[in-house]
């Protein structure tokens, strides 16, 4: 097969490309240039989207012995990931930019271009398996990335290749060292690549302003003030600066229209009904009858037993046990055991005894 290997400059994508080439595929490496102004993105050898990564990816391609190119995807990345990130926070939701990048850049824009150029598949260094055309959790549970790929369509999964799903991260690093890849010991990336200093609140304030507003409890009593509701997320406890509040308070909701943040005890975060929009089914046909499965609600988060089904254009999820800190804007990814069934973007949560009757 003709395979386009997406090479971020990190150890995972380098070993994935090497394995694809060793398997006999006709492999071409490509690095995605995602910033219009590289100096505005963070620096340092972190393995995703830094200004040094293109050079690391090129050196890895040279060692592997495959052609290498750089594709300018800065406009697409700014539109689909950065602007979406800002818009979601402005609307009181909590986005996952890495998930959006996988969906809109690596497995939409890149895959579309790859297919148009005659490639059969795109290979990436994600820690996930593909079995019988379906996404399955990695054997390395600590590094599993099936959640951030749960937004992919069945067609996108069909043209994807994940060479690393059957090994651990330690094994990947050891293999990179054996292959003479200089990125063998390169640290993993954990931060948001387009926020150079890691200050998400400062980044959002620069884009959206810092209008002061009230922090209230569930009764409506004003407990304090903030400098931008968009800098908070559901479940947040640190940074509230309530001073004299006698008990620990958590962010329960964000109302961008009136710039109000509501806080309360952890018990008030408990929800057992979740509604999501834009359901995507990569591992099965749409589930239209209530079906028992499991759901993951954030990257590396806890897995919950649930009953789920698609109702019109929404995904309805009833949790077997309540969850806390579930934020609108995140993805709910459904599983059958270790196999991804589908996903949706969370739009609403409730306690079932408080929820409006279905229908």
Automatic annotation (TrEMBL):
CDD domains: MnmA_TRMU-like. Residues 203-264 form the tRNA-specific 2-thiouridylase MnmA-like central domain. Its EC number is 2.8.1.13. SUPFAM superfamilies: Adenine nucleotide alpha hydrolases-like. Its main location: cytoplasm. InterPro entries: MnmA-like, MnmA-like_C, MnmA-like_central, MnmA-like_central_sf, Rossmann-like_a/b/a_fold. It is found in: Cytoplasm. It holds the Pfam family tRNA_Me_trans. Residues 143-145 are annotated as: Interaction with tRNA. Keywords: ATP-binding, Cytoplasm, Disulfide bond, Nucleotide-binding, RNA-binding, Transferase, tRNA processing, tRNA-binding. The record marks 126, 330 as: Interaction with tRNA. Residues 272-346 form the tRNA-specific 2-thiouridylase MnmA-like C-terminal domain. One of its GO terms (biological process) is tRNA wobble position uridine thiolation. Belongs to the MnmA/TRMU family. Catalyzes the 2-thiolation of uridine at the wobble position (U34) of tRNA, leading to the formation of s(2)U34. This is tRNA-specific 2-thiouridylase MnmA. The lineage of its organism: Bacteria, Bacillati, Actinomycetota, Actinomycetes, Streptosporangiales.
